[in-house]
């Protein structure tokens, strides 16, 4: 128990004893929330941000090499409203939670962030690296059932 500066320990003990049932109730509530969180993590899957960063950077490097895409740097973050973004300076920012998606959706996000149509990142020789693969990927994505809760 933390006691505020200027409050004697005996007064704090008295208050704690008077509020014992309230304290126990709050402790049970915290335990319940922790159990619900653990169940949710187990049901939905979990990956640490450092582990996700390794997966994301590895896959992005593989795709960039295969399709001759040039980028400056990659940031892996915990964004609330975006899967990813790309700046005009060729810096890519990706949400670490994309690693919980199926691999083809993760690749699709990489594709959208390096899309030559957005003029953000370009093939070394000026061509559009994703275009041949993009049409095939779009056909595959049409067959994926939407997630329902």
Record the SSE blueprint.
Elements: H1 9-18, H2 20-44, H3 49-67, E1 73-77, E2 84-86, E3 91-95, H4 103-113, H5 131-142
Parallel strand pairs: 1-3
Antiparallel strand pairs: 2-3
Describe the 3D structure.
The protein has 2 domains: 11-44; 49-142, Zincin-like. Helix content is 52%, strand content 9%. The chain is built from 5 helices and 3 strands, in the order αααβββαα. The protein has a 3-stranded mixed beta sheet, covered by helices on one side. A hairpin with a 4-residue loop joins strand 2 (84-86) and strand 3. The longest helix is centred in the first third of the chain and has 25 residues, at 20-44. It is elongated, with a radius of gyration of 24 Å.
- List how many beta strands DSSP finds: 3
CATH superfamily of the largest domain: Metalloproteases ("zincins"), catalytic domain
Order of helices and strands: HHHEEEHH
Radius of gyration: 24 Å
Largest sheet composition: 3 strands, mixed
CATH architecture of the largest domain: 2-Layer Sandwich
Major sheet: arrangement of strands: 1-3-2
Unreliable spans are 122-141, 145-149
Which class of the largest domain in CATH terms? Alpha Beta
Helical proportion, percent range: 40-55%
How many domains comprise the coordinates?
2
Structural class assignment: mainly alpha
> Shape, please?
elongated
How many separate helices?
5
- CATH fold name of the largest domain, please? Zincin-like
Output mean pLDDT: 76
Distance between the termini: 41 Å
